[in-house]
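Hi, does anyone understand the following?
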Amino acid sequence: MASLRALKGLAPEVVPLAELLDSYVREGELFERLEKNKVRCVACGHRCVIPDGFRGICKVRFNRDGKLFVPWGYVAALQADPVEKKPFYHLLPGSTALTFGMLGCDFHCSYCQNWVTSQALRDPRAGGPIYALAPDDFWRLVDQTGARVIASSYNEPLITSEWARALFEPARGRPIATAYVSNGNATPEVLDYLWPFLLAYKVDLKTMNPRNYRKLGGVLDHVLWTIEHAHRRGFWVEVVTLVVPGFNDSEEEIREAARFLKSVSADIPWHLTAFYPQYKMQDRPPTSVQFLRRAGEIAREEGLRFVYVGNVPGMFPELEHTHCPHCHAAVVRRRGFAVLENRITGEGTCPDCGTRIPGIWTEKEVERWWQQRFSS
């Protein structure tokens, strides 16, 4: 397992965090110049208009002399994990994902499990060391770990898209998939920018309540747009919802979310995961496992073909396995992050009835997806 410990000889520098981060930057590409030395950032749905000398909502993209500077050349988190942990269930099951993260986020979720990285420069307790890393060094770690997926996560990848694209570029044409684990607050500009280099996009659909989304720093319509248009553009899309008691755990809201996803595609995998108290949300219990199961049943009732329950390994096997939508045979069996059996054929079909199972199942399929990018 690779981690930051693998970056031998790269000790974190001891300087104020803002000063340190501002030394690991380069001029960005996802922005527009405006009058009076202002810029408009288009990396996320906030579309911040940033005066000279100021930062965007994410705190890590800033205007210097009428140019937008963006994070570059470091990682704050780096780990090799099963791809199921992201979670992706229809992307090279059982493979290793080398996941990197930087600092900063355009949301401020009170229950964020990665708040130490995501809330840097917003919460004085957040931040921590960062480590210089060149793309060539990153790819040596890819080879050493045997990773078949490389993913941007731990903070919001949209706000560090220039860096992610630089790390993803060598994957083109190789049997290695690239992935975002994102809050889904995207723009047409950033999806177009990522399209040649990004295959899979996991979106965190946090709630169907616009008011609750605003409490997290987001806009529901932006996230719904991203799910729809990432799917339309041809990214492999999976969606996850952390089911939080008293926040988004009504049957009506689960049903509304399922109906929306069905309207985009019944084949989008939806992961419903259990909440455990953390960060600023310590005032409520973990998600009821009975409700979690009921949420999965509702999603299937609404016509979604691939519904999964997470954070309760082994409790509901029927909601951890992938089943053929035609003959209902279990084609991938899982327990937690472990793949117990993968029966999907090399052509991505059910071995029993020959039905195509939506996803990216083999390295050959990864290469075909890259060929689609080359021809577009």
User: Anything to note?
Assistant: The CA atoms of residues 250 and 295 lie 9 Å apart. The two ends are 36 Å apart (CA to CA).
